[in-house]
Amino acid sequence: MQARQLEVFCMLMRCGTVTGAAAMLNISQPALSQILLHAEDQLGFKLFDRVRGRLVPTQEANELYPEAERIFAELGALRRRTIDMRHGRTGLVRLAASAPPSMSIVPKALTAFREAHPDIVVRSLVAPIANILDMLRSGDVLLGVAMNDMPHHDIDVETVGHAELVCLLPERHRLAEQDELGFADLAEETLISYRVDTLPGRLLAGALEAEGGIYAPAVEIDLSITALPFVREGIGVAVVDGLLPWSQFSGIVQRPFRPSIRVPIAILTSKERPLSGSHALMRDCLRRAAHALEPGGS
Description:
Layout: H1 3-15, H2 18-25, H3 29-43, E1 48-51, E2 54-57, H4 59-86, E3 93-97, H5 99-102, H6 105-116, E4 122-126, H7 129-138, E5 143-146, E6 155-170, E7 181-182, E8 191-194, H8 199-210, E9 219-221, H9 227-232, E10 237-241, E11 252-258, E12 262-270, H10 277-292
GO biological process, one term: positive regulation of gene expression
Keywords: DNA-binding, Transcription, Transcription regulation
Family: Belongs to the LysR transcriptional regulatory family.
């Protein structure tokens, strides 16, 4: 299957219609249909059946699609890389971080990196851990920063720091008078916190179970920043990572949470793609920035 045929196949699987796929690829519908016919001729089997005006993937298409999508993503990464090279951005550093590190560790690392290497372009993306892993595997980025140090067979995971969980309260909340808060203090409050299938959620569930309770947030979140408007509106109190600069946001107060629960901060790299010199330098800056956030760090 040729690259253009692969592109058409993947877009048809995503969109489900010739009209939608053609619009996404910016080609005419007849041209797209012709490319699909040629692909099916070369493969020797059909990829789609027409059912009531829609394209329905065949069993063969469904079996091919996961691998085709992976190759399609790698082709996209290669295309972007060649564009960067054409524009002279061969020193480009590409990294992706989840939201809390992107608002705390990455800015400090970028400041240090730019002071030493002002001519190197940095492309910084914000993404959840699943997307960061996908981008590392496709080569879209070479560095990832996430609050998760779970092992992966094809990813090097280096734990470089930890973030303590904290409690966020609306201004003038009755609990704001206390120096620190625990599960017992929040028993009568509407709890805003992580889903139990996230790493922070599992850590919280284990800590509360040790106290004889059951972890069941009334409002579940994936990213700590999403708790901010809920707390401001007085919906409840939140237990989230302390990595974000919460003191910069109005309408809330932050208090230490006890027992102390620490979430790992990790730098992720692909085992299949060695780092360039500029990426290795950025990794060093990320390490130092993460270490500076630790108690006693500098």
